[in-house]
Amino acid sequence: xxxxxxxxxxxxxxxxxxxxxxxxxxxxxxxxxxxxxxxxxxxxxxxxxxxxxxxxxxxxxxxxxxxxxxxxxxxxxxxxxxxxxxxxxxxxxxxxxxxxxxxxxxxxxxx
Length: 111
Prior knowledge:
The chain is an all-alpha fold. It has one domain. It is built from 4 helices and no strands. It has helices at residues 2-39, 41-63, 68-73, 78-106. The longest helix has 38 residues, at 2-39. The model has no long low-confidence stretch (mean pLDDT 83).
């Protein structure tokens, strides 16, 4: 029974991290598209992972701060949410921007 409870808690937290990241995603995606147009693909990755996550988090704090109670009830702190969003964003950005780089090299387009 104890193992089942721990697995259930782990799954609830994983879903909460993913939900929080999806809340930040529109800001991060918009910021990344602007950076790709202005600075190219490599710099956009660096800026997307660092400043994009921070801007998304600050937007969430400003516009949806009352939703932190949901995460607090699951035992998640703001700092832990930010850490996991940063990690998820790094992984997702690496995959997406690698695919873009591969696609641009196949099409002979220099991004």
